[in-house]
Amino acid sequence: MLKKFKLLNQFFHPEENKVDMSFSPFITTIGGLTLQVMQAGDENIPDLLVLERQVYSGHTPWSKFSFETELRKRKNSLYLVVYHASDLVAFIGARFNPREAHITNIAVSPKYQNKHIGTYLMQWMINRARKTNCEVVSLEVKIDNNIAQKLYSSLGFKSTFIRKDYYKDTHTDALNMVLWLKPHRVKKRKFTF
């Protein structure tokens, strides 16, 4: 009963579950490119939509409204944009709670792919999850996106289960993947007959 009360208390009093979402912009060099990394804001949405069209063959899986909604969740979310001069090169987004960081979105412009920018952003978010004392980082990836799955596996993510029809626009299944940052035990269920 105490465990249930604690979970309900966390649900009704989310301020007690705060995770530090402070961020300072910085400049880094990846693959010989000088890149500026900063927190995404509404002013970046037009560029985000253009980048999505480039990555997803003219489609925008996330609408303007989706980005606006996510970017407002500054208490538990962090969305980063990466620019090379005035070109949006990549972005990544994640939601945090005291136990888990969930990568919600990541994209790298086709023009800048294979330069380790996606790997850098994933490692940055994983390190952020460690600093906020998360136990696990999770994400979903299209079941047929072998390139992304290979990247995530190289970072230590393991496949857990399939989410049927997860991507509603294409009716595609998603593979759920997790990276445990702390030792964990899989709970075994007892079945009675």
From TrEMBL:
Alphabetical list of InterPro entries matching this protein: AcTrfase_RimI/Ard1, Acyl_CoA_acyltransferase, GNAT_dom
PROSITE patterns: GNAT
Organism expressing this protein natively: Lactobacillus intestinalis DSM 6629
Gene3D superfamilies in alphabetical order: 3.40.630.30
Gene Ontology CC entries for this record: ribosome
Coiled coil feature spans: none
Domain N-acetyltransferase: from-to ranges: 35-182
Keywords linked to the UniProt accession: Ribonucleoprotein, Ribosomal protein
Protein known as: Ribosomal protein Ala-acetyltransferase
NCBIfam families documented for this protein: rimI
